[in-house]
What does this fold into?
Amino acid sequence: MHGDAVQLGDFFYLRGIMTEKILILDFGSQYTQLIARAVREANVYCEIIPFSKPVVFDPSLKGIILSGSPFSVNDANAPEVDIAALHSRLPVLGVCYGAQLTAKQFGGRVANSNKREYGRALLHKQKDSPILKDVTELSQVWMSHADTILDLPAEFEVLANTESIPFAAFRKNGTKGSGPASGSGATDGAAGNGKAAAADGPEQPLYCLQFHPEVYHSIEGKKIIRNFLVDVCGCKQDWTPAHFISDTVAALQKQIGERKVIMALSGGVDSTVAATLIHKAIGDRLSGIFVDNGVLRKDEFEQVLSTYKEIGLNVKGIDAKAMFYRELAGKSDPEAKRKTIGRLFIDVFQEEAKKVAGVELLGQGTIYPDVIESVSVHGPSVTIKSHHNVGGLPEKMHLELVEPLRYLFKDEVRRVGAELGIPDDLLQRHPFPGPGLAIRILGEVSEEKVRLLQEADYLYTKGLKDHNLYSSVWQAGAILLPVKSVGVMGDERTYEFTVALRAVTSVDGMTADWAHLPYTFLADISNEIINNVKGINRVVYDISSKPPATIEWE
It folds into this structure.
């Protein structure tokens, strides 16, 4: 599975495992991932592709959603697809830009006007329809568009309006509502340049919303999306963790055959769940390698190896601390530290991989946000990040990739992990940077500084768990600052390091707010660290949000 040659739906389909699928055509909206998450939460599998990528009409495809966009439909370079051709084959839902593009292509009038609407609005239903089934009158929705539809195409009918927008929801006349018409997705074939070849047969449903049902502020938005999936597209809602596991294990067995897989494990959620799935498929023909790079958390190396043994994974632990400390000496630039750790990790991994005869595949814990972030809506090319978990190994080792989590979101990975029986302590761990504590030690890294930070970080994490705060925080950690200050302990003056505590709340890590931890907790942790970690005499708390700050300091 190199590059974008095979998508997950195709991966299952080509191997004889059928699953239903919704395709989301991305026009560049900041909310496209939220559409996908809402579809997945309804237990329906979906994929996001750039609008310009050919649509493959395999039998599993049940419907298409057109996303929003930062463009105006009247821009000279506005992204377009042939919506009439798409909806001749499948049910289609246009969201915001997708709705405006539909109106324009079918002969309506879209323009920038004084009816621009942004923010909360109340939806007034004018007509009963499957897509607004069980949606309450004056339900709050979220608008975000400068353009608006001034005239609806002749063959369309209004379903709902708001105080400012007369065409908040609409559909093409003759649209059916009790599932897709016959012939939906029944013909294979790909259409180039974002265009879908029309097919003979009954016309499919075409619905449009000039608001964003996928965002939090659209109170019943997920209900509307569910209505499209179930009542319009006829989806069965059987995309569950158990379903994913059985399908993935079968697909992995067909992909891997009798070959061997090697995998670098980090102790994190993604690599552990990916390894467990591969192991479930091929047993001990998966060889895992877990490297102690000297900048892991306190006792993490031993604890993670113990967990892997409990799960039944075939993992070898490599103690390479001394090598990493030696090479990191004298390096204070964050990028230099990252590159050193990445280079050494590849060297260690390759050396150990040579000891496993007959390996042809490389396992990775790549997840869907890694894939989506590297997709450009302005072209069909997809470049998958290579640094996830294992640095530049795909380029170095020339092995075929095995990425069983490639199309899952983080929360889905955790649910799959729970279904697999992976211990909750590992599944619910906060994200941890690949370079580890090296980028939480500002300046040069040394074994003594690592020891100080490990102790402070351990007390901080333990305190969050003891006070039932750990699960309410997206990510937390301690940062050792290159600053010493004067302190007093008993009758002695001290001149020791300062530690900054960082805790943020977030959904996906793309944006984050500093966690408003109780003052009493912060006071207790400050005392705990200063009293128990000799070498630290001052604790501060970071109250910066992302943006403009980042979650990590380096």
In short: The two ends are 33 Å apart (CA to CA). The chain has three domains: 20-232, 241-427, 446-541. Confidence is low (pLDDT under 50) at residues 1-18, 176-200, 376-391.
